[in-house]
Amino acid sequence: MERNLPVVLIAEDDQSHMELLSYNLENSGFKVIKASNGRDALDLTKEFKPDIVLLDWMLPKLSGIEVCTYLRASQYLQDIPVIIVSAREDEEDRVHGLEIGADDYIVKPFSVSELLARVKANLRRTRPSSVGQKLVYKDIILDSEQFKVYRDGKLLKLGPTEFNLLATFIEKPGRVWSRDQLLNRIWGRDIYVEIRTVDVHIGRLRKALCQYGGEDYLRTVRGTGYALG
Where do the domains of the chain lie, and which CATH numbers do they carry? Predict the structure, then answer.
């Protein structure tokens, strides 16, 4: 597959919704791969490794949640941004989608402009601003060129949002970042993201950094935000 255009995989079992999404994404300069069930979505992601994946929650064969969980457990695929698309609008569902590894969650129905803004925002943060650098904090090494993080020599599993959060913290160790500052830096100012989203991703980052044990370097500053060290 030609890689001159960013590639979006859409996993959606509603044909009319699939065509609406693919039409607007293609008109906005994206190459689209289509999957009508979770099994095909997983197989096509393995085959083509798209730049971003849009997953409907309620897919046949494998749910979007199951596909996302698999992607986050795969060393080869874990760096692909995932947006869950769902009619489930309860906060509990949104938080669950983020906790299992999604980078974003968009509720149906939504405007095309909102979807495009979220896709572009997630692609922008696939790599941190410090591309080509190796950032070090104590026993943690963040390699932004290879998109890998090591702690005490062990490779850690991090999604793209957690990767960028860690890069932000390591660039300025000890600085306290408010939730609003992290939202603006990681997600951007052009889309609305709920403030609790930050807490969910911080929780995922904490879990990833301590997956082989060791001290929890992330500090919660009560009433303010978070800091590294």
Answer: 7-124 (3.40.50.2300), 134-228 (1.10.10.10)
